[in-house]
């Protein structure tokens, strides 16, 4: 009888712990989805990647993912290559930070597709030896970044379509190794004043 | 005495499995519902397929151990 009571009590405690954990996870997901800080960071390190960012494609223009000294990277052989990004909410700006090696110093640029057109991209230069764009270099890997204003003509069904281009890469027998793609999406952060309209908007729009 | 202890262990495991199953099912259905309303709400961070598989496994164990929850009630 005593055992029985103890057992029932422990079952009740376990049930409470389970339900509390589940509710905590759901609350955490709401927090992540609502993005109150206004900043969402999405990464592809080629060792692991967020489900919001696609792998680079098409495969025939790339080598398989390799590892060298603990750094994972993928090599671009033929220009251009693409990747897509799914954004859970609307963001005002996107900063793309790419870590890469470009030994031939070929022009390297990133673009965002105009979804209303078949072949129109808003390009930003990552590296151009003629223009002498300043780059940060560490352990042989360069870091370049590009900023985009996210307007409606760049987004379709919550998708952003990126292009990485390095003209005549294959003809010059050159290659570009990419070890990290990081995208920082930003919008207005949550404040006490804008919370209500933003929350209403969050509930209204899926 | 030993028999009673064994029954108690079986009963406890059977009850625990049922608790885990019901919580997992609630969790999975909630995420599915929210995912439908807001795409990538959960899928961006949680492996929904894994939760579905766990639901299935615990569901089967719950069914198989229903006998212990009834017969071995002390």
Keyphrases for this structure?
heterodimer; A: 206 residues; alpha+beta; Jelly Rolls; 2 domains; 7-stranded antiparallel β-sheet; 4-stranded antiparallel β-sheet; 11 strands; 21% helix; 35% strand; extended; B: 74 residues; mainly alpha; 3 helices
Fold and architecture overview:
The complex is a heterodimer of chains A (206) and B (74). Chain A contains two helices and eleven strands; from the N terminus they run αβββββββββββα. Chain A has 206 residues and is an alpha+beta fold. Chain B has one domain (2-71).
Structural class of chain A: alpha+beta
Structural class of chain B: mainly alpha
List the secondary-structure elements of chain B in sequence, H or E: HHH
Through-space gap between termini of chain B:
13 Å
**Integer tally of domains of chain A:** 2
CATH fold call of the largest domain in chain A = Jelly Rolls
Which percent range fits the helix content of chain B?
over 70%
How large is the count of helical segments of chain A? Answer: 2
Largest sheet of chain B: none
Secondary structure blueprint with pairings:
The complex is a heterodimer of chains A (206) and B (74).
Chain A: H1 2-34, E1 39-44, E2 66-68, E3 71-76, E4 81-86, E5 93-101, E6 108-113, E7 121-127, E8 136-138, E9 141-149, E10 159-165, E11 176-186, H2 195-204
Antiparallel strand pairs in A: 1-11, 2-3, 3-11, 4-10, 5-9, 5-11, 6-7, 6-10, 8-9
Chain B: H1 2-37, H2 48-64, H3 66-71
Summed up:
Chain A is an alpha+beta fold and 206 residues long. Chain A has helices spanning 2-34, 195-204; strands at 39-44, 66-68, 71-76, 81-86, 93-101, 108-113, 121-127, 136-138, 141-149, 159-165, 176-186. The radius of gyration of chain B is 16 Å and the shape is rod-shaped.
């Amino acid at each position: 009888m005593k055992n029985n009571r103890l057992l029932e009590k422990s079952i009740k405690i376990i049930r409470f712990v389970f339900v509390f954990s589940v509710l905590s996870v759901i609350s955490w997901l709401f927090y992540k989805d609502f993005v109150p800080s206004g900043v969402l960071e999405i990464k592809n390190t080629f060792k692991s990647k967020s489900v919001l960012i696609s792998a680079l494609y098409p495969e025939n223009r790339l080598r398989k993912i390799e590892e060298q000294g603990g750094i994972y990277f993928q090599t671009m052989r033929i220009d251009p290559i693409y990747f897509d990004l799914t954004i859970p909410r609307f963001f005002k700006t996107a900063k793309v930070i790419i870590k890469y090696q470009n030994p031939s110093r070929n022009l390297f640029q990133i673009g965002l597709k105009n979804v209303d057109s078949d072949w129109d991209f808003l390009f930003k230069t990552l590296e151009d030896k003629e223009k002498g764009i300043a780059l940060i270099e560490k352990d042989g890997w360069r870091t370049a970044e590009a900023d985009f204003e996210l307007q409606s003509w760049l987004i379709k069904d919550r998708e952003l379509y990126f292009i990485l281009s390095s003209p005549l890469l294959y003809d010059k027998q050159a290659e570009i190794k990419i070890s990290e793609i990081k995208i920082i999406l930003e919008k207005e952060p949550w404040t006490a004043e804008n919370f209500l309209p933003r929350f209403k908007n969050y509930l209204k729009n899926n | 005495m030993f028999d009673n202890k064994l029954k108690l262990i079986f009963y406890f495991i059977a009850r625990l499995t049922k608790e885990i199953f019901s919580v997992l099912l609630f969790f999975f259905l909630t995420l599915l519902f929210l995912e439908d309303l807001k795409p990538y709400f959960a899928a961006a961070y949680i492996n929904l397929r894994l939760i579905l598989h766990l639901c299935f496994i615990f569901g089967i164990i719950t069914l198989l151990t229903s006998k212990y929850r009834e017969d071995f009630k002390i």
